């Protein structure tokens, strides 16, 4: 049996995050010692590792909840898991596309900068007037 600190170290997850996952139901309430200390077994370690890896891949907590439900029911079709992963892939591809547009615009701004006075600075001009941009990148920071 592991303490919450040992679970945190083994998975690279903060103790507060483990408690949060318990509060929102991604992790089950752990067993406790007579002194009230949380104790976790291999099943909880596996589940937390699953959640942690899914978060590293950018899955939302709702998607992880869906994936865990599928994982908890091994007799169901994996088509739903595939659909969730495809949805995540599409979101990643959209973010990459927006980031490419941002990169193109920043490269152009930097390239066009003459290094003179700030009154003539192309970087500042473009930042002041979005119509100076060649690419659509409004949602990159979202």
Which features would summarize this protein structure in a list?
single chain; 142 residues; mainly alpha; 2 strands; 59% helix; elongated
Fold topology:
Blueprint: H1 4-11, H2 15-23, E1 31-32, E2 38-39, H3 42-56, H4 61-71, H5 79-112, H6 122-128
Antiparallel strand pairs: 1-2
- From the spread of the alpha carbons, the general shape counts as elongated
Largest sheet: 2 strands, antiparallel
Q: Calculate Rg over CA atoms.
A: 23 Å
Query: How does the helix and strand content classify structurally?
Result: mainly alpha
The low-pLDDT segments are none
Q: Give the helix level as a range of percent.
A: 55-70%
Tell me the β content: under 5%
Distance between the termini: 41 Å
Mean pLDDT across all residues, rounded? 88
Q: What's the total number of strands?
A: 2
Provide the spatial order of strands within the biggest beta sheet. 1-2
Helix tally equals 6
């Amino acid at each position: 049996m592991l303490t919450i600190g040992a679970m945190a170290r083994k998975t690279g997850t903060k103790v507060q995050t483990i408690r949060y996952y318990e509060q929102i139901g991604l992790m089950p309430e752990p067993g406790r010692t007579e002194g009230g200390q949380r104790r976790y077994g291999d099943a909880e370690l596996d589940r937390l590792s699953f959640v942690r890896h899914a978060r590293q891949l950018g899955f939302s907590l709702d998607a992880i909840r869906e994936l865990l439900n599928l994982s908890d029911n091994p007799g169901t079709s994996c088509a739903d898991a595939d659909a969730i992963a495809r949805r995540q892939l599409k979101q990643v591809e959209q973010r990459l596309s927006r980031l490419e547009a941002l990169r193109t615009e920043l490269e152009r701004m930097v390239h066009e900068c003459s290094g003179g006075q700030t009154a003539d600075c192309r970087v500042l001009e473009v930042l002041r007037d979005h119509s100076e941009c060649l690419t659509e990148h409004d949602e990159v920071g979202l």
